[in-house]
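User: quick one, sequence for these tokens?
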């Protein structure tokens, strides 16, 4: 990774309004810890900045720290690792317009591209072939009012909605949203516990008792490397 600075992305793509640079917090190679791609060796491109402030956020360092990088340099960095899986994560990738052409270029390079987004931006401009893992923020996050609800009707079958559950009240709220909007018919639904707030056993028991047709997840990378390790 290049060294940090505080510049804003400024360079524009030729003939367009979309910047040709992104502020990047870190690029690293690790095991995908979440989503239906969990377990895959993956290159992570973590963009800087986020418009939300979830109560349980574990990547606050990405709010400010980062380096402005041209898209070509980001691609070159990703290519140093021998995998065809790339995950664009944050912070919030869709908070920077150049995330869209970056995902397009990664697809053109033959990567399986996933996008982890906080659910507050519309996914309408995200290339169709990107696997979109879209958070629906539960009330205990403090950000459930920030959701771009139009995303509920924009997903494709290969996309995923993710509910991060911090309490039984969050679990019940997530169940209600899924039922009201028929989400189970649209794509995979992931439920995962907030680390240190709900134990995996508790969440598992709620899922089994309610017969919720969801996929339970735990953050595999935290089990492997511990909750505080960065760049994994
Ligand atoms: S959306 Fe993600 S990065 Fe932003 S505050 Fe919430 S948990 Fe942190």
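Assistant:
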């Amino acid at each position: 990774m290049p060294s940090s600075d505080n510049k804003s992305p400024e360079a524009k793509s030729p003939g367009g309004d979309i910047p040709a640079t992104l502020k990047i917090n870190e690029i690293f190679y690790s095991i995908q810890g979440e989503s239906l791609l969990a377990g895959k060796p993956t290159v992570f491109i973590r963009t800087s900045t986020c418009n939300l402030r979830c109560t349980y956020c574990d990547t606050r360092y990405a709010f400010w720290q980062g380096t402005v990088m041209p898209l070509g340099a980001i691609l070159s960095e990703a290519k140093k690792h021998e995998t065809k899986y790339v995950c664009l994560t944050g912070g919030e990738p869709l908070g920077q317009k150049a995330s869209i052409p970056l995902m397009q270029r990664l697809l053109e390079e033959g990567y399986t591209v996933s996008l982890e987004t906080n659910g507050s931006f519309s996914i309408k401009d995200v290339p169709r072939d990107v696997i979109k893992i879209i958070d629906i923020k539960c009330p205990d996050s403090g950000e459930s009012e920030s959701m771009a609800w139009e995303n509920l009707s924009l997903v494709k079958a290969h996309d995923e909605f993710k509910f991060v559950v911090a309490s039984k009240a969050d679990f019940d709220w997530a169940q209600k949203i899924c039922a009201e909007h028929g989400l189970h018919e649209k794509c995979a639904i992931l439920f995962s516990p907030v680390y240190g707030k709900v134990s995996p056993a508790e969440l598992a028991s709620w899922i089994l008792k309610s017969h919720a047709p969801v996929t339970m997840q735990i953050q595999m990378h935290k089990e492997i490397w511990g909750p505080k390790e960065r760049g994994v």
